[in-house]
Amino acid sequence: SLAANYYPPRSKTKRAPAIILIHDAGGHRKGLQPMAEYLNKKGFAILLLDLRSHGDSRTEKLDWSKLDERSRTTQWAFASRDMAAAAKFLRSQKGVHTANLTVIGLGAGSSLAVRHAQDDENVRSTVLLNPPAKALGLNMANALTDLGGISTLIVSPKEYRKDHSGLQSQCHEDNDGLEYVDLQSLHSSAKDMLTDKRLNNGIYTWLKANVLSSK
C-alpha cells in the first residue's frame, strides 16, 4: 500500500492533464506539497505519493533509513512499479486527460521520472529537479539521451548550472541536434530550491508552453 495525496481536476468542463510528483531518495511527499497545490490550481490533476519504504509508505520490514546501499538500489528499481500504479490510478480518474501525463522528479526521483517516461506512451513531458549524474543504478545522460523527442525541463540550482548545461548539450548532440531539453537556472542552492519563489511559476510557465498550448 502506498500513501498519496490526489488533487483532482478543478474544471468541470474539460479534461485536465495529469502530473505525478516524485520525491528524492530518502525523502517524502510533504516537501513537494506546495508545488502540487500550486500546479493543481493552474489546471492539472496531481498525484503526490510516498514511494515504497518512504514517508507514510514505510513499514516495519521496509524502511529506507534502515536499508543498506544494495537494498536501497534494489528497492529504488522496484519503485518503478509504484510509478506504474500511480499512472494507472490517474488514468482511472474522472476528468483526467489519460494521454497527457507529465512526470516531475526531485533529485534521484528524476531517474524514476525518466524510466517511466521511457515505458509509458502517455507521457508528454518530464521535469527534472536537480537531477544527479548517476542515481541508484541509472546514468542520467544515457537515460535522457534515450528519451529523445519527449519535452524535458531540467531545473538547476546555482551550484549545478554548469553540470546541467553540459548534460543538456550532450543530449542534443547525441540526438543529432534535436533540441528537446530546456534548462531553467535558479538563484538558490540545491538545499533551498523547493522554497525558491521562482520554482513553481517557472515550471508552470514551461508546462503551459509545452503541454497546455498544444491541447
Please supply descriptive tags for the structure shown above.
23% strand; alpha/beta; two-stranded antiparallel sheet; 6 helices; 215 residues; seven-stranded mixed beta sheet; globular
Strand and helix map with partners:
Elements: E1 4-7, E2 16-22, H1 33-41, E3 45-49, H2 69-91, E4 96-106, H3 109-119, E5 123-129, E6 134-135, E7 138-139, H4 140-146, E8 151-156, H5 161-174, E9 181-185, H6 199-212
Helix pairs in contact: 2-3, 3-4, 4-5
Regions with little confidence, pLDDT below 50 for 5+ residues: none
What is the chain-wise order of helices and strands? EEHEHEHEEEHEHEH
> What is the terminal separation in angstroms?
34 Å
Strand order of the largest sheet: 1-3-2-4-5-8-9
Helix fraction bin: 25-40%
- Structural class computed from helices and strand pairing: alpha/beta
Strand-residue proportion = 15-25%
Taking the sheet with the most strands, its summary is: 7 strands, mixed
What is the tally of beta strands?
9
Number of helices: 6
Principal-axes geometry comes out as globular
Oligomer: single chain
- Give the averaged pLDDT, no decimals: 93
**Rg computed from alpha carbons, rounded to a whole number of angstroms:** 16 Å
What does this entry look like structurally?
With 215 residues, the protein is α/β, with parallel strands linked by helices. It has helices at 33-41, 69-91, 109-119, 140-146, 161-174, 199-212; strands at residues 4-7, 16-22, 45-49, 96-106, 123-129, 134-135, 138-139, 151-156, 181-185. Strands 1-3-2-4-5-8-9 form a seven-stranded mixed beta sheet, sandwiched between helices. Strand 8 (151-156), helix 5 and strand 9 form a beta-alpha-beta unit. Helix 3 packs parallel to helix 4 (140-146).
